[in-house]
Amino acid sequence: MRPYLIFKDLKLRxxxxxxxxxxxxxxxxxxxxxxxxxGLIKTLPAxxxxxxxxxxxxxxxxxxxxxxxxxxxxVLTGQREDVNFSNSSYTHILSTWLSPDGNFFFVAVDKGSxxxxxxxxxxxxxxxxxxxxxxxxxxxxxxxERHKEAIVIKRASRCLNPNAPQSHQRWMGQDHYYDLYxxxxxxxxEFEIK
Length: 194
Description:
The longest helix is centred in the N-terminal third of the chain and has 26 residues, at about 5-30. About 25% of the residues are buried. The chain has helices at about 5-30, 30-40, 120, and strands spanning about 50-55, 60-65, 70-75, 80, 90-100, 105-110, 125-130, 135-140, 145, 150-160, 170-180, 185, 190. It is built from three helices and 13 strands. It is an alpha+beta fold. Helix content is about 20%, strand content about 40%. It starts with a helix and ends with a strand.
């Protein structure tokens, strides 16, 4: 092999190596906001659950659940605020998850004995917009579940024997389907609630 070809090949290899190292260092590099959030997560009270982390210029905060309350910690100001996403009381937070684009997150709550009729409004699903800090009640029912393609809220629709004592009443229910952003898709056929 000619010496100038070896040198040319070496230059190409060094160029490829430098691009690879540059890409790798860009992936490993964290912004100061991301580093603060990462450090904050380590100091959360035991049993806390991280809901969402935002490191952009607009949000720079961490949302987390602790003691069945939702909190937002702004890492630039160092202030923690209690997030009031619901306009009614609840006993505990069942679960949280992010929308596919990460701009919204959902909070499913159980109202327990605070609900006048559990089959109709025992659980509520709220959608919180992390950019505007506004919430919206998606729906309510007696069971909320998240699937890969949709959110399902099971809710009582009508009583089959309304004159019977409440403990002996039979109810029909429906599965109400919502997309992964909380918009109504459809309701399935009625079924008897067991």
